[in-house]
Amino acid sequence: MRLIILALICTILALLTLVIGPISIPLFSEISPEQALILSELRLPKMITALCAGGLLSVAGLFMQVYFQNPLVGPYILGIPSGASFGVALWYLLAGGSLSLFGVFGFSVIGGLGTLAVIVMIAPFLKQKTFLLIFGLLLGQLLAGLVQLMTLYAPSENLRAFLVWGMGSFERLSLETALFLAMITLVLFFCSILMSKSLNTMLLGDRYAQSMGVNLKRVRFLLILLSGLMASIVAATTGPIAFVGVLIPHLARWYFSEHRHHLLIMGSFFLGGIFCLSIQLLNLLLMPYSLPINAWLALLSAPFMIIFLFRLRGRSYVF
Length: 319
Description:
Structural class: mainly alpha
Low-confidence stretches: none
Number of helices: 12
CATH superfamily: ABC transporter involved in vitamin B12 uptake, BtuC
Distance between the termini: 23 Å
Radius of gyration: 20 Å
Shape: globular
Order of helices and strands: HHHHHHHHHHHH
Mean pLDDT: 81
Number of strands: 0
CATH class: Mainly Alpha
Number of domains: 1
Strand content: under 5%
């Protein structure tokens, strides 16, 4: 029932982002050609992007917290957004500030997946997960330093374009690209659900999971791979989006009051979609005074995290 409630709220918010704005669009009556153009070219791609980005980041954050057994890690802990940022900064430096979607998207994916490939290759050689966490942080700092060097010597118009990309936005995709993102999201979401049985078994301890036939190394490898793919795709399509992947898994655990991962995965996806759709709706209502996505996330996420930390005080945390 709680999952159905989340799905209904998510559906209502998605519909509201389509009909509310400077030009209102009727939901159950005939619309004009101009309204149809606004719906197909502007609002529908934004709605799909917000829903997919929020859902993917939330599930990726859940997987990272399960892998590292740490409530403060998120999908970007392994330096993937720094890799995506490096790719985009390289594109703007080479292309002279061009806003070509294929160039930005392609270089961002290459940077993010390249960073993920390095993490995946190095992971088997690091015996402890803490070392992998440290390696990811150091790799992210290295790439961030390279990005700063590139922006330092970039022309002003290139620098401005890159800074705008780094603020995060749901407005960059066309309808065709947004639908392609939705297809990728469905595939990754289905793969995540398939992981839930193994993760539920691991709640009872590694020895019990091994006795039930769970391959722990393969499960942990898939956790890194799936969360890295999700983070790379979101960073490529929206820019680096902060806070969602850290905050939403905690809200899902609090909302369901249990730790079965098939519920947490679906709940995190819907809660992430609700969170990002709410921000998109706020921007529509406040136009032309809308704020960048990361500005809204910082303003809204900090109180939630403070409340969560006080609720967690003195309690053990179960992953």
